[in-house]
Amino acid sequence: MDTHLETKTAMVLAAGLGSRLGVLTQSRPKALVEVGGRPMLEHILGKLSGAGYGRFVINIHHFAPMVRSFLEGKKDFGLEIHLSEETPDLLDTGGGILHARPFLEGCGRFLVHNVDIFSNLDIAAFSGEASRKDGISSILVSSRISRSGRYFLFDGDMRLCGWVDEKKGIVRSPYPDFDPDSCRKFAFNGVHMLSSGIFQAFEKAGLEDGTSFSIADFYIDNCDRYPVWGICPENLRVIDAGKISDLAYVEEFIREE
């Protein structure tokens, strides 16, 4: 990996239990499950460092010592890496970001990337487009069919205004008299660019370090007060490596790349 990088900051969400991966995560963390001959975490660090990111925050929980040992053995790949350990309990995506505040606040904007998301996304282009937008976050979305039936809803300017679970028939929005049929729906893909102003927004919402909450829920509940923008690149291909049945597709994707 290139060690001559700008000090752009990214957070890799890697603390999850990986329960959908079954036996593969009974003896190791999801971040160290191998695809294409290398752990997921190594793939993601390589992709992000190749796009100019040189400073990383990685949240850890499940088999945390194994992640520490792996990175030490690789000498952090020549990168600046900080570990944000969540103990005794997992803090979910939003709580994990808030817990990592000491490493993230003050760096302007920072990228957040799930450890089990593989894509052909041009990270540098996404980062550049996101940096030109105001608000607390820009999120990577696509028109793919969501297996969960859950979609973010956007207005004509691609500002987030609500959410729908089509399987359960649930619609959420902070706007009164919200009409989901007037919106465009897109699936979220586990990559977003956040402003460090997100931490002040957390405070105003009464959220404290140690609170477990979903960042997606925070976006949905507060998008009327804090702009959240959707970015939908053309020809985006995304694979979630969160299930055993997905790993073969990831392997094929890596070979093609």
Polypeptide structure, described:
The strands form 3 sheets. Strands 1, 4, 5, 6, 8, 9, 10, 11, 12 and 13 form a 10-stranded mixed beta sheet that branches. This protein has helices spanning 40-50, 64-73, 92-99, 101-104, 123-131, 198-204, 215-222, 247-256; strands spanning 8-13, 34-35, 38-39, 53-60, 80-85, 109-114, 117-119, 137-142, 150-154, 160-165, 170-172, 184-195, 228-231, 238-240. The protein is built from 8 helices and 14 strands. Helix 3 (92-99) packs across helix 7 (215-222). The radius of gyration is 18 Å and the shape is globular. The model is unreliable at 1-5 (pLDDT under 50). The chain has a single domain (8-256), classed as Spore Coat Polysaccharide Biosynthesis Protein SpsA, Chain A (Alpha-Beta Complex), CATH 3.90.550.10.
